[in-house]
Amino acid sequence: MVSISLSNVIVNAVQNTPENHYIKIWHEVGKKHGTRLCILNTGAHIDEDELPRLFEPFYRVDKARTRGQGRSGLGLAIVEKSLKRMDAVYSLENTPEGVLFWMELPD
Questions:
Q1: Which of 7, 20, 22, 36 has the greatest number of C-beta atoms within 10 Å?
Q2: Distances in Å between the alpha carbon of 102 and those of 14, 20, 30, 77, 99?
Q3: By the 8 A CB rule, do 88 and 33 touch?
Q4: pLDDT for 33-45, tens place per residue?
């Protein structure tokens, strides 16, 4: 389940990182669990009202995107379900550098 979650978050970051910016992936000691995995797509920003809705199935911030572009709108919903099954703590948040997704994985 961790690999599915990590893969979906990385694909999402790749698809939503602005041109001439980059994705940074690292790990650190978690605050509640063993390891915190972090994925930052620099230069990106999501309206604060949109952040909690991104985990809803089929929700898209950019309404112009369609399934014809190869995106189902299920990636982050799958991530959320997988992480909840593992009792993992996670967050999607704006930072001064861009959009950060992190998940803390139990030991």
A1: 36
A2: 15, 23, 10, 15, 10
A3: yes
A4: 689 999 999 999 9
